[in-house]
Write a structure and sequence with these properties.
The structure is a homopentamer. By secondary structure, chain A is of the alpha+beta class. In chain A, 55% of the residues lie in helices and 15% in strands. Chain A contains nine helices and seven strands; from the N terminus they run H-E-E-H-E-H-H-E-E-E-E-H-H-H-H-H. In chain A, helix 6 (180-215) runs antiparallel to helix 7. In chain A, 43% of the residues are buried. At the A-E interface, helix 1, helix 7, helix 8 and helix 9 of A face helix 5, helix 6 and helix 8 of E.
């Protein structure tokens, strides 16, 4: 019970950007992010070009700014947002606008794309889905693309970028052959691709609910429909801004993005449009399930009412007749007829049969 | 039961692009398509111009690239998407972008039109309808238009292009007189035309459901409405992007498309707009049927309640009176009146008649 | 019954463009229109200018192409679309695009305006309304405007253009003073004006249904609402594209349309916008009537339930008391009290009054 | 009853432009307006500039065209539209387009703004509200702005322009200091300002209905909600085009409008946007009241059902027990137990208490 | 009761701009604002630049126009709008358009941004939320940005700008380093930031209602849903225009706004978009809660009906049987069977068990 409340509690507040900690700070301030301060921030650095690559965990960002290597593209992945000193160092050495750093540390941003001329900045939503509890969580991923460098900021360590790490190591696909813009695209692409998997899981869950709905709908079915409806609403609200983000990214005329990469960004755009379309379909599907539930409940009530009406309509008149002959009047000649009792029984039987026929004709039986 | 679940299972998952097999592959990779690998891929080649034509099944694509023939326009129709070697050969010899080939083999694409300058690429949905089970299936058809060549990719052999084959052979219409762009248009046109037939079938099915709804609505009617509603939703989602596709195609300024052909593309655009309009009308019609169903159920419940109320309101008071004179008090003078019994019967009759009159006035009878 | 089904049958299929006869024909083919082949095609020719006019029924189109007359503007009105030879002759002599002729003969087109530079072509919907059966029918009217010639194609002879004929004959208004573009405008104008009359009739019918709804709603009222709802949906779908048509027509920069005429086209545009607005209002009105119907049914059920509850709540406990004193126990002292019977009757009366008071307080009475 | 029907009758037909009288007239014809021909048309002429003003009722328009006065701005207000001779004289002397005069006399126009270069023409809706019957009426006001002249046409004499007359007389505000364009703006402004008052009255009426709804909803409440819903729909449809009108007016680049006046037109635009916003809010509010009504009816039915169920569930089983001991079998030993009667009464009491406890636990009591 | 009405009264009228006091005044007139005339108007003046600041309460505006200070940026905050003399002085000395001053004193404006070239003017909504009564209040804040001066007008003294005062005093953030445009941005920013806090509070309240809804929904729950729904509607209507305001502000090309400040305005724009998104989500959430409430009520009614039907269906037939053997016919042989009574009791028990089994199979138990 308690737990259930908590679960719902999560559900409504997640629609709202958490706000109290930021109150009163001037714009561009770096604030401490709300969670998991205990876990240390980790930094992963990848240097690569077509010929080779290095991959290492680094303690300070100095190595990232070290330009001695031949490996032209640099990707710095930062897990954890609460190392304010680190943030400030990146801000100052790359001359990033304070608002960008504010947005990175202040999770709960709406996905967006900003072109600061010297560099591009975008915030995206990473979605994870718990198959057991059917709960959806979102995480903010911020990406800065500057010259031949890409910096990505995750709230905590995750495995969604493993695919990218693998591609760098095995030199599969064209990642190693292309520039930093393609790396930024790749990060965006794997996140968008992961949405399809989420949708497939949610689809499977809707399927289960629908099977319940068709075979034996209960109050739990209604609650499941309600929960999945809200999850889809949440998903829609989280991903809807992604469409505009990718569109702006794709049509942006920044020199940082190569023409070849634009074809790939157009492809991501097509994917995100398909994701939005699918979510809208699922919303309509679930909305239709709600209607079916209500009709089913109505139909059942109808059936219950029919049983009551049939029982009452048959037996109440018969009971009345029995009541008449249970009266104690002195002068009731029928009581003394020899076959009076049988006659009354016969009349009752006929009345019952007539009633049944009536309901048969009405198609209530 | 099992079967029914399966049928529904198809229904929800079909809204979602299948995803798991592609996970982790770099963009532009060729993947194996999910179905029917056992069936061999077949290639049909048509060469034609105004004066003549050849038509043959070919085993390798060499013949397609052979430029010795005078027959200027070439149409290669490929049935089956799982011959990766073939795909790669086409990609490399025509210098097609890897993303295009990825989209071709990865069925479940949203219909779209891409202009790659050297060539045009579009993906469309072919719809088939099973008149017995009233189920709708979609198939992806990809078309590449490059110079005087058209390549079409179907998931499996079908008969929708028979009309085109016939026109080449009989030289009816202007197909043989026009270029490859007109051929691409023709393929698009026959697919769009086939939608009207689907709509007519669905309209017929809605008609049947409506007749049920009007004469004797049952729970099955509700399920039919639910199914057709979802089918229309599915159809709408599948065909809605077609509108933008044809619009982009028609207004595209590529030199590959001749001005004469544009008039025809405008015509296809008008058709697809009409298809979308019709689907929206059907959606509204079916939505109104749902309302009618609910009102009907409500009206019936009302009728059931009236029967119950009339029966109970008439006989419960009468039974009470009979109960009074069934009491065993020593001192109940009425019991000893000579015509007491008849008086009570009379009173009961009058009460019954009054009740009936009341319900008559209330228009419940 | 049969008839009623047929009527509904008409209703759903009319939303869908008839398609089977065209299957497989190449684009631009002339096909036989589906109805009324028995009735001969008639051709009416009007030649006129400010000074005079001729009006005649002609058998062949030769007279139309005869340029000897001084009467500058020519209007050819063709009733019936199934004379394919005639169509081909017009196509070839005026060099009309085959797609135009296809659209003319293939009724069921969405209203549209096409600018073929040499000539303008538009398809409009003429609406007729049967006041008895409240049924709406649409007919396709196609108009070609080329130089100083206007050709109009109707499916069958009708009287909507009588107003135009009258104006030519009596030289009222500015029709005879203006060119062919004004004639095309006039044809469009009388058709759009006729919509207002249809709307007035439908409004009157809605009025009648509403009066039923307010005074004594029955199941027939529900069906009427359902029918009018679908008629309005049909009307909306038929006329919605007219808005874009007139807008394109009005803003079109073709030299065929004179600047003076544009003011008039703007006026038609205002009218069609008003028509669409009105249809949307009626839709909302009818949708509100559906809600009222449902609430009324709900209220009635409520009333029925109250009667049942009041009757049952009063008499069931009283019957129970009577039942107690009808028991045959040896030792029931109350039975032998002198005024026991009267005491029980009194208690019953008090209970009944208390119950009635309770329901009075609850405002159920 | 009759009256009520009439009232509703007004309601539906008012959504539709009256049409029958115009049928068959050529465009630009002047037709007789449908009402109040008996009342004579009156003409009020104001001449003014910063230094002085004249105000007079005139019989013919000659005085209006007399250019001898120094008072630069002229405002002619015409009450009544049925003096066709007068209309024609204005049309011919100012060279107004026939369509404009047609629109002026043909009330029921959609609000619109037309720029005829030489002059500007706009039609607006004046709304009046009857506080007793809560009925809304609309009147068409047409305004022509030409050089330094403004002509306004009202269907009948009204007091909404009294504010303007007062300002001319008292020289308050900047009206006398500005040109004819500011006068046209002022007329528009007072009409738009009057909408706010209407909205306040309607808001007050909704308030009353809501109080009824919260304290004791009846069928009348439902009808009130229905009426106010339709009034709001009517208001929305009447005023929605005003937004576009004022926007076109404000952004129009005609030389007739001075730059200074544009600031004021922008202000009117802000007002009309606020009016539309408010109407939409009220629509949502009323729509929510409908939901509340339905829920309340549902809740009541629930309560009624509970009373019935509790009464029946308690007494039906008890009556059954009483019935058992009312049977006349020879061999029923319990009947002869000394305290059998009391035992049965006790059992009945216990059963009743158990039932009540059950309903208590179920929270039905 | 009275109080409750009052509360609702506030609710509907607040959607409508108060109007009666302004009736008849010419545009640009200064009117007395409706409330709190008793409280004196206070003026706070801040002069600052990067090096220092002064902060003082002033009695007349002379000090504000005194240009002797080195402190370049001036911010004048005026609490209270009813000092018409003061307003006129500001208007005349800064040459502000009369419409601006009218809008400032006439609270109830729609949020808007106007560019008067010499200065920028915008009106925003400040929202306050009462956590106890869950009531939302709005206050109008008007801001004029002219050269290096910012003037803000509040209806009454409030604490929302304390954050700004603090930043000036402590020189935190970049406020002191930037110009007057940044000050105007800062005022806008703190107001928009305050919305997030309101949303969090409302979210918490929705949470509470949802917990009620899930555990024990009552009529109060319905009323709470209704109230919160209307509050969200009100909030949406108040803040929706803010989006356009900030967008126009941000994209405005006025020279008064520095390029650096535009980045910050873009950030505010992102925030207001997020606010609107969140309100829309909450609207959907609450709308879903309404559906859940209705389904729950329906389900309960169903349960009530089942109890009634089960009780009645079991005991009515049994009572009938008891009634039969309570009849007083002379010739009823069963009555004289030795075990007749027990046989009948047995039959009754079997019938009861059959009934229960039937309901068990129907899953009603």
């Amino acid at each position: 019970m308690k737990n259930d409340n908590l679960r719902n509690s999560l559900k409504i507040q997640r629609f709202i950007r958490p706000v109290d900690k930021t109150k009163g700070l001037p714009p561009g301030s770096l604030r401490e992010p709300p969670v998991e301060k205990a876990i240390p921030v980790t930094l992963e650095l990848f240097n690569y070009n077509e010929k080779g690559f290095t991959s290492e965990h680094i303690a300070t960002v100095d190595k990232f700014f070290d330009k001695s290597s031949d490996l032209t593209v640099k990707w710095l992945n930062i897990n954890g947002l609460h190392d304010i000193k680190l943030m400030k160092e990146i801000r100052d050495r790359l001359n990033i606008h304070p608002l960008v750093l504010e947005d990175i540390t202040h999770t709960g941003q709406r996905p967006k794309f900003d072109d600061y001329e010297e560099y591009l900045y975008f915030v995206i939503k990473m979605i994870t889905y718990n198959r057991q509890t059917h709960e959806i969580f979102t995480e903010q991923v911020s990406i800065i693309l500057i010259d031949s460098m890409v910096i990505s900021f995750q709230e905590r360590e995750g495995d969604v970028f493993d695919i990218i790490r693998e591609r760098i190591k095995t030199n599969k696909g064209r990642l190693r052959k292309m520039g930093a813009d393609y790396m930024a695209y790749s990060l965006l692409d794997v996140v968008v691709d992961s949405y399809f998997e989420i949708l497939e899981n949610i689809g499977g869950h809707i399927q289960e609910i629908e099977e319940d709905l068709m075979s034996h709908p209960t109050v739990k079915t209604l609650q499941d429909i309600h929960h999945i409806k809200r999850d889809i609403l949440y998903l829609f609200n989280s991903l809807w801004p992604m469409r505009q983000l990718v569109n702006t990214f794709y049509q942006n005329e920044s020199k940082i993005i190569d023409k070849t990469t634009r074809f790939y960004l157009k492809d991501v755009y097509d994917h995100i449009v398909q994701v939005i379309d699918t979510i809208e379909s699922l919303r309509d599907v679930v909305s239709g399930m709600m209607d079916i539930y209500l009709s089913t409940v109505n139909n059942r009530m109808n059936e219950v009412m029919k049983v009551l009406t049939i029982m009452a309509s048959i037996f109440i008149p018969l009971t009345f007749i029995a009541g008449i002959y249970g009266m104690n009047f002195d002068n009731m000649p029928e009581l003394h007829f020899k076959y009076g009792y049988y006659a009354v029984l016969g009349i009752m039987a006929i009345m019952g049969i007539l009633m049944l026929s009536y309901f048969k004709i009405k198609k209530w039986l």
